[in-house]
Amino acid sequence: MRTSTIYFYGGVESVTGSNFLLDTGGSKFLIDCGLFQGMRTAEDTNWTSLPYEPKTIPFLIITHAHIDHIGRIPKLVRDGFRGKIYSTEATKALAEPLLYDAMELLQHEAEWRKLEPMYEEKDITQSMQLWDGLPYHKSVELADDFSFEFLDSGHILGSAMVRLTREGRSIIFTGDLGGGNSPLVPPTESPTGAEYLVMESVYGDRLHDETEEKRNTLENCIEDTFARGGTLLIPAFAAERTQDLLYEIRTLMVEKRVPSMPVYLDSPLADKITAAYLAYPQYFNDEMQKRIASGEHIFEFPELKFVKDASESRRIGEMPGPKIILAGSGMSNGGRIISHEKEIFADERSMILIVGYQSAGSLGRRLVDGAKVVQIRGEDMPVKCHVSAIYGYSAHMDSEQLLEFVNKMSDSLQEVFVVMGEPASSGFLAQRIRDYIGVRAITPESNSTAKIDL
Ligand SMILES: [Zn+2]
Q1: HEC string of 90-107?
Q2: Distance 267 CA to ligand 1 centre (A)
Q3: Distance, CA 159 to ligand 1 centroid (Å)?
Q4: pLDDT tens digits, residue range 182-207?
Q5: Is the CB of residue 93 less than 8 Å from the CB of residue 280?
Q6: How far apart are the CA of 65 and the centre of ligand 1, in A?
Q7: How far is the CA of 156 from the centre of ligand 1 (A)?
């Protein structure tokens, strides 16, 4: 039997920075090339040179368009990668505006910290030229007798698991796994027959709220803030979370479950991403496809206003409530959300509503953890506004769902590598896989390797 080696370069011992390399003996495939994110949009490690020689790698396969999975692609290309990049078609469409946005943030970060820019526009252009979009389930030959296909991971529009096969045996890199929490994308596929699994564990030790419960909580947060005349501020990732929330708020308003009030989408990026979503209707779930085909505008409603420039953003911040503002970044570590937060921290009528994973060290994480004072650029700010969290809007499987996902594959599985989680979360899931399913499961360390029979 032949052997391959997996190199765990990023997305281990933490959620972000997804970057794995499969060395097949005769070729090398990279899976994802994401940014490490924490307190800042980009941690120092992003600027250090890549731990492999980019020009020796013929293929890069991308699971989905979140920046912690794609954010270092232009750097890879700048440093000499000239191979092929593969993702689904929708991922490619979402990746382009997300990379331009990341480039701007990284340029500010680099200037501020007196570093070289990580990449420039030409590097993104060149990346897009090397990039092919594929539909799900199309098998593509790579090299060294390997082929691969994308399976729907149900996380964000176009998100995929990558199944790599040689001589009938296969390994699946899950990317991020949705848990049926999005009203928009199809359910996660349940693959079988793979020998190896490299899987995410963001919520490896946590359970989510039920769907109806989370909609009720959102409804209550909107009603309570309305009654107080405050602002409901929702930090949201531009890709998926924003579209999910727009859809949910639209539903609540159309059904008159909440009072009518202005809703501001203060994110030019989310605006572009929403347009890219609508350009790929075939990637939505069946119900949404039907609605879109019948002419329904699933993200539009009379109360929704798109905020274009920074001066308009400042104006809506100063406007009296009640109102709802959605802005990025999703972890409050940069972007327009920061000035809105500064505006409402002292306002007891207002609420910050956290709806997604917050990485350790981020401002969002400190808020969820109940900090009464937070620091922004060295300035102490007391937090008097309400802070609430709904985990059900997370686009990730929870602990039970992850275990069930592995269970369905248990007949063929030889080993599971639990990655993309904080250590406690990955460790907990790995333990449960061993105890309940009886399959070997480990949590690889950063920059470690594993040999597999494939
Ligand atoms: Zn993701």
Answers
A1: HHHHHHHHHHHHHHHHHH
A2: 19
A3: 8
A4: 899 999 999 999 999 999 999 999 88
A5: yes
A6: 7
A7: 7
